[in-house]
Amino acid sequence: VLCGFRCMEVQGGGGASLTGVLDDCFCDVESIDVFNNFKIYPRIKKLTERDYFRYYRVNLKRPCPFWPDDGHCSIKDCHVEPCPESKIPVGIKSGNYNKYSQAANTMSDMSECEQAKELGAINSTLSNQSKEAFADWARHDDAQDHFCELDDETSPDAEYVDLLLNPERFTGYKGPSAWRVWNSIYEENCFKPRSVYRPLNPLAPSRGESINSSFSLLTLVSLSPGLCLEKRVFYRLISGLHSSINIHLCAEYLLDEGWSRSVWGPNIQEFRQRFDPAETKGEGTRRLKNLYFLYLIELRALYKVAPYFERAFVNLYTGNTQEDGATKDLLLQIFNEIKAFPMHFDEKSMFAGHKMEAKTLKEEFRLHFKNISRIMDCVGCSKCRLWGKLQTQGLGTALKILFSEKEIKNLPEHSPSKGFQLTRQEIVALMNGFGRLSTSIHQLHNFRLLLKENR
Ligand SMILES: *[C@@H]1O[C@H](CO)[C@@H](O)[C@H](O)[C@H]1NC(C)=O
Ligand SMILES: *[C@@H]1O[C@H](CO)[C@@H](O)[C@H](O)[C@H]1NC(C)=O
Ligand SMILES: *[C@@H]1O[C@H](CO)[C@@H](O)[C@H](O)[C@H]1NC(C)=O
Ligand SMILES: *[C@@H]1O[C@H](CO)[C@@H](O)[C@H](O)[C@H]1NC(C)=O
């Protein structure tokens, strides 16, 4: 059974609990939850702990190409003063919103600032053994033919980061600097018509006078007659990503800094602020739906790319044959679970245009993702930048797969293909990115239970 795009358009059950049927075919949230929480989540968690997947090569040193003076606003520099008025994007300035944001979110206290700096820092510890292995990995990867190059991957500044040492969680990175990043992603990169209102901080209830809360960006986008399905899809993907990242930050919140160690855990208040329908004027439910939408899209991409990995000569190289074999087994198990899951998203409705149109669209999507990856270079907090880049690349890779159906069908059984290739970095981003979504849905389940208890 394929679930069409229309499925996800229909209003589901209400509440942050988001229960009920999402659509008129079979995409109900409960089935996705059960499938994810029991079949996928435990396996993908194990997979991402393996050496092949735990080390991600990324360049975190690229300067922000869009607003070079942002240092004043980011926690990196720990300025006590709020951003000067002239540096705040017009959208954030409007209404009472600015006052609110300064009062509530700028770091006014040096120790808070230091704390954020510490929480957002990357732990770059790598064992000597790992470092030696990486050189070997590079030799192996170089020997493969690669036809797509990513700036980050080929840059001499790119470094391996151990993802297990740097979990995605609350870092204290918020306020104007963080909004600026999301704002420009939505505002300038979402294929939206010029007339659309700015979303401002898309996760805060609208406060500015210029924003009529019953007129969200999303409703405007989905009402825009000039905007084709694919472009609306793009917006929903970004919104789903945003929701997912925020669920992680709420679920791994810094609850207490004890003498010996910090305590991380779910913060219901934070969660409510972002997703409770009452506190978000209904936006919360939509945000969560976009998360499920994104999950189904990435699930579909994994289904489509399975034949690429099922070929015997494709290995997940770390130099340890036994470990590599086990990692590949685990990956194939995940693919098998996905194949057995009956509810797939029907991407045909999405890319069904004329051939030329599809080609143009593919290129447009690619450029947008490249751009969003560059906007991530403007994120002031290293750890947030790391996870932002990884998840954007994961989604970019998923779309590349969906756009390459024909090439994947024609893969040669025993040799690399010129038509379709995935680099190590793309594979690591794809699986870790999907792992993050799977974790979000799992965490959402915990939040539902907590909300019930607290009622
Ligand atoms: C980085 O991680 C290692 C291994 O867990 C730990 O020993 C070390 O203290 C950490 N460094 C920092 C700065 O947190
Ligand atoms: C790792 O390598 C560095 C430089 O090669 C050396 O100084 C250090 O002692 C090594 N550490 C361990 C734990 O082997
Ligand atoms: C890329 O992002 C920047 C900053 O948000 C924006 O000014 C520019 O128009 C974007 N370019 C494309 C091709 O989307
Ligand atoms: C928002 O706009 C709609 C449609 O223009 C209008 O009916 C509604 O009263 C407005 N709401 C507020 C709070 O201004």
Structural class: mainly alpha
Q: Mean of the pLDDT scores? A: 73
Number of contiguous helices: 18
What share of the residues lie within helices? 55-70%
> Radius of gyration, rounded?
22 Å
Order of neighbouring strands in the sheet with most strands: 1-6
Please trace the helix and strand order, writing H or E for each element. EHHHEHHHHHEHHHEEHHHEHHHH
Distance between the termini: 37 Å
Number of domains: 1
List low-confidence stretches: 1-26, 70-108, 145-149, 193-226
Main beta-sheet strand count, sense and barrel state = 2 strands, parallel
Find the count of extended strands (DSSP E, 2+ residues). Answer: 6
Subcellular location: Endoplasmic reticulum membrane
Pfam families: ERO1
GO cellular component, one term: endoplasmic reticulum membrane
Membrane topology: Peripheral membrane protein
Protein described:
The chain has 455 residues and is mainly alpha-helical. The chain has one domain. It contains 18 helices and six strands. The longest helix is centred in the last third of the chain and has 31 residues. The two termini are 37 Å apart. Bound molecules: 2-acetamido-2-deoxy-beta-D-glucopyranose (4 copies). The site of one 2-acetamido-2-deoxy-beta-D-glucopyranose has 3 residues, from loops. One 2-acetamido-2-deoxy-beta-D-glucopyranose binds next to loops.
